[in-house]
Amino acid sequence: MTALTLISKPDCHLCDVAREIVDTVVADLPEGRVDVEELSIADDPALYATWWEKIPVVLIDGEVHAHWRLSADRLRSALTRKESA
Asked: How confident is the prediction along the chain (85 residues), in pLDDT tens digits per residue?
């Protein structure tokens, strides 16, 4: 299973857009292939210190996939590659 982590914060327009993209792309993949977790920098000082100027951040299996703006096509491609690996 692929782990996708969205790092965001409340009241963040780009985070809302990224969340919608993640939801749409994951819904198109076979069920149970991607485990999505959302973490907020507002709840974790360490996350805040690391990511505050780059949110939203998307990690795939712990590695940075994107920050600020998320491309649905690029995310779909990355998750499809992980799925077939």
From this structure: 999 999 999 999 999 999 999 999 999 999 989 999 999 999 999 999 999 999 999 999 999 999 999 999 999 999 998 767 6
* The two structure tokens encoding residue 63: 């590695």
Q: What gap in Å lies between CA 47 and CA 59, rounded to an integer?
A: 13
- Residue 41: C-alpha distances to residues 1, 2, 24, 63 (Å): 25, 22, 23, 17
∠ CA 63-69-70, rounded to 5°? 60
Q: How many CB atoms lie within 10 A of CB 49?
A: 9
CB of 42 closer than 8 Å to CB of 10: yes
